[in-house]
Recover the amino acids of this structure.
């Protein structure tokens, strides 16, 4: 019998719910969902008795046309998952999520009154953290927060209103205070902690990301063209503008070198215009992961061109790097301060993020031996499968929460 009961509060709604409500959302949280799902999977593989409280990760109305999200209960990855109601209007969203959390926490504490309770919160969302801290104060329930991004660096994908900006700034300061009152944190970059005076004294560990250990390598097709591929947010902040500029230049150098893109973002309309002008630039729209995997069978190299000098990159780890590595396809990327040095031997680095450096990097990798590149990619795949799978990464988090020597089942 489990003596511990874990509750993870976050956004991991059921698959059908996510697919249906993401269709018309201007900022679909696909990458965040993958990471949150890996935490869920890791707890399960470590035999943790886990319950989920989830809220759909909706953009504020009208970014998502749905105003009210209701109650649902189902099974996600074999785990009981409750979706509680909220109203998707800026300001009101936080209030309704907070009271929904309070109600669920009261019920969960009663149902698990005979076990040792631990709360884990995915993402620094103030309604979740505040509600959990109330129960930490009342019942001494340990509360830990998974911090995949800092709130001050999460404003990508378009212009926001002044009201939104003001509320976000106030919320960030409030979150900073709330996190300092928790029992510990998991971060994707050490800089998140060492540069924050309020967080330095907290128990913490760095989990930059994790992969599904059952993920298969991409089935490669034999193609003559050299296809470079980018999947993700199509925003200037992620280096996509420089990537597009580079391949406009490359169109005059080698007609067999192509750039394929898929995803959503502020640059979609610009990309669609360029695809009509440049035959070497192709846009496939917003695709499901199976469709992306099929496309990658024709790909020579995967691209990541974030600017290493941007403030946000030292507080982040691009989750697409792990997705890229597990594919077994060569990767061409900028060297980012948030990526640990242990990844260096598996990546091919650009000298910078501007279009000129990208052109030079592409031409350089084209001159390298294909077998050498594939062997490096294969070693990278082996590395993340053995060292960065969800079971191993979450075991470290469990050690932080309950101690290395305690038996939690």
């Amino acid at each position: 019998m489990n003596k511990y009961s874990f509750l993870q509060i976050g956004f991991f709604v059921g698959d059908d719910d996510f697919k249906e409500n993401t269709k018309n959302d201007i900022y679909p949280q696909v990458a965040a969902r993958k990471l949150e799902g890996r935490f869920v999977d890791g707890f399960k593989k470590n035999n943790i008795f886990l319950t989920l409280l989830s809220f759909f990760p909706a953009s504020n109305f009208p970014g998502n046309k749905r105003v009210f999200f209701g109650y649902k209960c189902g099974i996600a990855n074999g785990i009981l998952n409750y979706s509680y109601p909220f109203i998707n209007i800026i300001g009101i969203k936080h209030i309704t999520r907070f009271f929904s959390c309070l109600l669920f926490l009261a019920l969960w504490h009663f149902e698990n009154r005979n076990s040792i309770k631990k709360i884990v919160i995915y993402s620094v969302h103030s309604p979740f953290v505040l509600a959990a801290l109330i129960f930490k104060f009342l019942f001494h329930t340990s509360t830990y927060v998974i911090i995949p991004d800092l709130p001050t660096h999460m404003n990508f994908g378009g212009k926001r209103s002044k009201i939104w900006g003001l509320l976000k700034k106030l919320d960030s300061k409030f979150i900073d205070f709330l996190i300092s009152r928790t029992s510990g944190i998991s971060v994707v970059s050490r800089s998140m902690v060492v540069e924050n005076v309020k967080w330095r004294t907290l128990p913490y560990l760095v989990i930059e990301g994790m992969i599904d250990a059952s993920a298969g390598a991409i089935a490669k097709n034999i193609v003559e063209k050299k296809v470079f591929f980018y999947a993700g947010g199509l925003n200037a902040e992620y280096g996509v503008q420089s990537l597009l500029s580079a391949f406009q230049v490359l169109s005059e150098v080698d007609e067999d070198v192509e750039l394929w893109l898929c995803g959503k973002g502020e640059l979609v309309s610009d990309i669609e215009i360029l695809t009509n002008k440049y035959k070497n630039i192709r846009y496939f729209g917003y695709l499901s992961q199976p469709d992306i995997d099929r496309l990658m069978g024709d790909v020579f190299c995967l691209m990541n061109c974030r600017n290493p000098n941007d403030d946000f990159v030292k507080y982040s780890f691009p989750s697409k790097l792990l997705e890229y590595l597990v594919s077994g396809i060569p990767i061409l990327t900028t060297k980012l301060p948030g990526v640990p040095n242990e990844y260096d031997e598996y990546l091919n680095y650009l000298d910078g993020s501007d279009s000129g450096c990208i052109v030079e990097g592409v031409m350089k990798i084209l001159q390298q031996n294909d077998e050498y590149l594939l062997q490096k990619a294969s070693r990278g795949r082996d590395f993340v499968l053995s060292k960065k799978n969800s079971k191993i990464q979450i075991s470290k988090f469990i050690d932080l929460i309950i101690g290395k020597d305690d038996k939690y089942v």
The CA atoms of residues 184 and 397 lie 10 Å apart.
